[in-house]
Amino acid sequence: MRKKIVAGNWKMNLTSEEALKLNTAIDTFVAKNEPKCEVIHFSPYIYLNEGINSVESIAIGAQNGYPEKNGAFTGEISMYQLKEIGVRNILIGHSERRQIFKETDAFLKSKVDAATNLDLTIFFCCGETISQRENGKHVATVITQLENSIFHLSEEQFKNVVIAYEPIWAIGTGKTASPAQANEMHQAIRAAIQKNYNAEIAKKTSIIYGGSCKPTNASELFHQSDIDGGLIGGASLKSEDFMSIISTYK
Ligand SMILES: O=C[C@H](O)COP(=O)(O)O
């Protein structure tokens, strides 16, 4: 049985007080209700330490990390530093990093290698633009992203990878991929994993969906054959909404 995962990506949101409150509320909820999924908050760097030290039933992950161990990289935080404070999960390849911060496939590959060397669980994000979808290039785009930045890992290394499919046109827009559209892509990703690795690894890799996922659509999405949970942006900032999404796996 594949691991089901509901992860919140807070992006650049929340005050320190709100972050602590939300971590505590979700941690308490998960401890009490024991949902059948792993719950993670991908938090801004500055709230990681307090988060890690204040929760027991959920994990706190990083939204980013620099691949070099240390050095003259003003303003950056290394994955090594993240690991040292207790981070175990990291997002790599989010479309906001690709588009706003111009992170290339080659740079993402170097991040994948750094995270792998540190034994971090990689949540590798991929997804197409609306024009790529309209031109029928959505599947090819996503598979190329995987081939360029993560499929070089060995079978053993790939076991520490979760794929997050996030169609760019659905992120923060209120426009969700239909369950059929999302599942079609998840099936294509799983087939590509099988082709590059093997059927066993493909069967065991969790592939989660992100893009305007909310309490009203999470259940239908998460019940698709190849969708193993979600990477939630906006709805993870409201404890009631996030709890409702987590409860899909009760
Ligand atoms: O990482 C999360 C995604 O970017 C989804 O964000 P959203 O739920 O606000 O659309």
TrEMBL record:
Keyword Cytoplasm (UniProt): yes
Pathway noted in the entry: Carbohydrate biosynthesis; gluconeogenesis; Carbohydrate degradation; glycolysis; D-glyceraldehyde 3-phosphate from glycerone phosphate: step 1/1
Primary location class: cytoplasm
Active site: 94 (electrophile), 166 (proton acceptor)
Reactions listed under catalytic activity: D-glyceraldehyde 3-phosphate = dihydroxyacetone phosphate
Record's subcellular location: Cytoplasm
GO cellular component: cytosol
Keyword annotations from UniProtKB, A to Z: Cytoplasm, Gluconeogenesis, Glycolysis, Isomerase
Cited InterPro entries: Aldolase_TIM, TIM_sf, TrioseP_Isoase_bac/euk, Triosephosphate_isomerase, Triosephosphate_isomerase_AS
KW Cytoplasm (keyword) present: yes
Positions annotated to bind substrate: 9-11, 172, 212, 233-234
GO MF, one annotated term: triose-phosphate isomerase activity
One GO-annotated biological process of the protein: glycerol catabolic process
EC number: 5.3.1.1
SUPFAM superfamilies: Triosephosphate isomerase (TIM) (SSF51351)
Summary of the function given for this chain in its UniProt record: Involved in the gluconeogenesis. Catalyzes stereospecifically the conversion of dihydroxyacetone phosphate (DHAP) to D-glyceraldehyde-3-phosphate (G3P).
Record text on subunit structure and interactions: Homodimer.
Family: Belongs to the triosephosphate isomerase family.
Name of the protein in question: Triosephosphate isomerase
Biological source species: Brumimicrobium salinarum
Gene: tpiA
